[in-house]
Amino acid sequence: MAWLRGLRGARRLAALGALLLGALALATAFAQRALPDTLRLDAEAARQVELLDRDGRPLRLAYDGGWNLHERVPLAAVPATLRVAIVAAEDRRFWTHVGIDWRARASALWVNLRNGRAVRGASTISEQVVRILHPRPRTVWSRWVEGFEALRLEARFSKAEILEFYLNQVPYGANRRGVAPAAAYYFDRSLDTLAPDEMLALAVLVRAPTRLAGDPPALRQRMRRLAQALAEQGRWHAPLPETAPALARARPSLQAAHFAAWAGRAAVRQRPGAARVRSTLDADLQQSAEAFLRERLRDLAREGAAQGAVLVVDLDGNRVRAYATADRLHPDVVGIDPVQTPRQPGSTLKPLLYAMAIERGWRADTTIDDAELRERINGGLHEYRNYSRVHYGRVTVAEALGNSLNIPAVKALQFVGQAPFLARLRALGVDSLDQHPNVYGDGLALGNGALTLYELVQAYTALARDGLWQPLTVLDDAGPRAPPRALYTRDAAHAISAILSDAAARLLEFGEGGVLRFPVATAVKTGTSSDYRDAWTVAYDGRWLVGVWLGNLSGQPTEGVTGARGPALLTRSLLARLPTDVALRAQLAAPERPEPGPAPAAAPAAPAEPVLAQPFDGLLLARDPRIPAALQAFRFELAWREPPQRVRWEVDGAVVAETREPYFDWPLAAGAHAVRALVLDAGGAERATGTARLTVR
Fold first, then answer.
1. pLDDT tens per residue across span 47-66
2. What is the 3-state secondary structure (H, E, C) of 202-266?
3. Region 349-356: what's the mean pLDDT?
4. What is the SS3 assignment for 650?
5. Could you give the angle at the alpha carbon of 96 between the alpha carbons of 80 and 38, nearest 5°?
6. Which domains does the chain have, with CATH numbers?
7. What is the pTM for the complete model shown?
8. Phi, psi angles (nearest 5°) of residue 441
9. What is the DSSP string of 26-71?
């Protein structure tokens, strides 16, 4: 820079100015970005598969703020009044400038300086197109660079190409781009049916769609101002609008954005390179499922259920005919897909478990003891309870499953085995349960794992199709499919279906009537996770299988929404909406009543010598601070194949009680303790059990 210091006066200033201008020119050149070779986006559209419904109708499903690829309209198809109004509102010298409107910039600068703040913009349509192509922060530097890119844009493309791109890609709020989606959203109309005042509204909404849509007086004022400007040009002959048109903000006829994403990924895998793929979705059924789901969530608003999902499967080929989701709190947001989100299934796994038990020798009339059940879990005890907290004693498998009793289900899992049951679930397509069987334990029978609605429905198809399993499909154009596999015996699948369709089998817990008594023979199972976080219903009738989940994706509990109370009513409504096929319902029409069969597998024999069943050695107990200490007790239990004549219960070497029953409710006392029992047999001899050590905190 020594040469600059050697210059004098004006020459130095001129040189400095030239240096700064050169730096600005260089920075401007480097800040600009490459322009596309075309504004038609055909290559982009080709990379995004266009999905069709089962009848070949395009599914325009997702509004996520991305490019408008499948609802574009040619410039000639945009009504002339709308074209003229948008150009007048956004860039009245569009047809004469070369990318930058210097007059508009100077006028905006003067107005903004006079008001001391930015109150007017001067972006041309070409500059807005640049901003759509290359989003940047709203700064003075960005505006500077965009102007030069707009000059290059106009040198490369014609005015008609630029305007057509703009009309199809301009953001309109609510994740919509382009005049055609905006007309459908705001007025529930197609472009060619818009009234003149609705075209005016679309023209002025471009500037601030969200704000103006919520401010009818401001919208009307801008419409009148635009109409006056057009009238002065001789392009508006109708009266000036007195009111803003009502904005319908209509929902699209189909909301299946989550299906579009899921099926679109399947199409890329199974039909690489295909531009259009026919899906299995029934658009009319999808619309009904969405409407039913939104209505049910509104009904359950006070109970706190915010999200839901519905899956309807045609059992002829396991084709997904409806894949509906809804979010009561954010109805216009495409968020997490609840069909594919793992949630705890409650009791809905029990039919899949009992089907395995029947394969291994149990029958519908096999009896199980529904009695108190406590099991060791690490250093503590877990007590299993039925939903009603009632124990029914000896119950049949049909009664245990029909009434969704928890304790018999745990015993069924112990009969089948945790690892074999988990392996069967994975064979049925339940990939979400990917932990070791020990992680789930016996709680697997009660739904302590998490799986998706898609996986659950897919697994149930094996019960609904005589034990034959086949993955669900969302594409009709996917080519040959693998043949079905027999994952359950036909007899086991029929037995479970008969139990689930027999209203008499669920009288103990569900009583007469209610939403689970369907008008035609239907196998139905409900499930509810802990704290009412998830409510499920799965039902099938021989032709259709419907699965419903309601709850909160956040994990927030609902206020008592159960499977029978929440989704069951929705399931009834959907099945009533579906075509009836009497022949296919026949296998569910009459529950099987088998002849008396063999007894269930025998329970393990009681020990020959008296032992402590409870407590076990190493047990940890914690007192409940909400309950008075004097009222807290733990039951000592004796296991022995003979009835004792007398039991003396010893704690820390001192006898604390003497009973004739093989149990004693010991008042809890803090600290470490050693427990044993001294048992008097029929011959008068006293036998001592081993010692168990426990700790009470």
1. 667 788 898 887 765 566 67
2. HHHHCCCHHHHHCCHHHHHHHHHHHHHHHHHCCCCCCCCCCCCCCCCCCCCCCCCHHHHHHHHHH
3. 97
4. strand
5. 75
6. 1-31 (no CATH), 62-232 (1.10.3810.10), 338-471+483-589 (3.40.710.10), 611-696 (2.60.40.10)
7. 0.64
8. 65, -155
9. HHHHHH--PPPS-SS-HHHHHHSPEEE-TTS-B-----SSS---SS
